[in-house]
Amino acid sequence: MYRAPVLLRQLEPRTARTTAEVIKFALWPIAVMTVLNRVFIKAVNGFVTDDFKPVYNASLAFLNGRPVYTANFDSVDPHYLYPPGGTLMIAPLALIDPEKSRWCFILLNVVAILLAWYLLLRLFAYTVHSIAAPALLLAMFMSETVTNTLVFTNVNGCILLAELMFLHLLLRRRDLWAGVVLGLSVTVKPTLAPLILIAAARGQWKVFIGGVGVPVATTAIAWPLMKDADDFFTRTLPYILETRDYFNSAISGNAAYYGLPDWLTWTMRLTMAALVAISLWLLYRYYRHDELFFVTTSSGVLLTAIFLLPGLGQMYYSMMLFPLLMTVVLRNSVMRNWPAWLAVFGFMSYDKWLSDRWQSIGRNLEYLRITFGWTLLLIVIFCVLGDRYLAARRDGRLPSGIIDPPWMRYAPDSRDGTDADPELPESRTPQTPPPAPTAPPRTEPRNGTTPLEEKRISVEP
């Protein structure tokens, strides 16, 4: 008797028998078709914003011994901003013609994002057979951050993969390898550099060997091979540190665009910095032993602060917040409330709010929603943690070192196996068998009658 291959049997149409199967059968086709649309239609079509062209031209100049840092910073076109070590790493892009190279770079980012999706599932004890798998895949590729990373063709997909690899290695105490991954990421783009503070908070000092050593080593190798390596530090780096008033969703960027006074801009930045510092202290003081929650939440707070508070923050940087958003499956997550997801809509949604009818209002909504989203997310995290702390202090629970409310221990958590895939061994926990039913107390019949006779007698007039 012919038996179809396993893959074909998985694709065989079946009628769902459980709610979980209904959801999976509905989400998988939508998720897969969304991925295909983003990769083969939107990404290949491209857009007027092209982050890949300056990278390719710089790589070509590097391979041919020409100056690399020659961008005209007076224009608003994308500029080449990678450091010398990053130039060395991305130089192979120019070994083939621009069109094929761009397609290869898109494919590289797609593979990186899909690997990051899988690692994110595994980080929270899910498999590709769980409901979370298609839901997460669909959410990622419907977001602005993944869509525009592919359409603009930049390196953020690879940076996301580096973040997930770093978190996995950090939690497994593979400190040297975690440092190498972080160092390679920082060599190209310093987005993940703040994560080294989490390693320091956990006492994993070996991470610094690779985290600092790899960028230094690649820069030392690239320096004599570049004609104008010093121009990065004298010309490009000062531009990076400036606050520009276009394509900039940081507080300072929008403040410059709307002409806010410096005192008001600094007041907002310092206020948010204080909220971030308090949130990080509460996480370190009361949650550092809950390793998964601490690492993923702290990384999200740090990265959101880096997007919002310094001089430059762009919407598609929000890709690095996927681990924070995924903490919603944890019982003590700070994301289990509607204001948090209102914030997520602000910086993740691909919707445009520009309006032909209400032009001024629509433009303000479009330009400010990212800034408001990041700001609201940090405020929500501060309020959730602060409320837990104050409630624990009122109840006298602070000496125990736990500020989670008592009811939270009964809430669903992926680590209990209640939300995670039951086929995953590490997601299961021993279940306490229910107590055996006890027989109702026996009452002795009156006058030597049986219970049935007593019931009959008791209802007789």
UniProtKB/TrEMBL annotation:
Residues 431-442 have a biased composition (Pro residues). Its main location: membrane. It is a multi-pass membrane protein. It is found in: Cell membrane. Residues 452-461 have a biased composition (Basic and acidic residues). One of its GO terms (cellular component) is plasma membrane. InterPro entries: GT87 (IPR018584). The chain crosses the membrane at residues 21-41, 80-96, 103-120, 126-143, 150-171, 177-200, 207-226, 263-284, 291-309, 367-385. The keyword Hydrolase does not apply. GO terms for molecular function: hexosyltransferase activity. The keyword Transferase applies. Residues 409-461 are annotated as: Disordered. Keywords: Cell membrane, Membrane, Transferase, Transmembrane, Transmembrane helix. It holds the Pfam family GT87. Belongs to the glycosyltransferase 87 family. This is DUF2029 domain-containing protein.
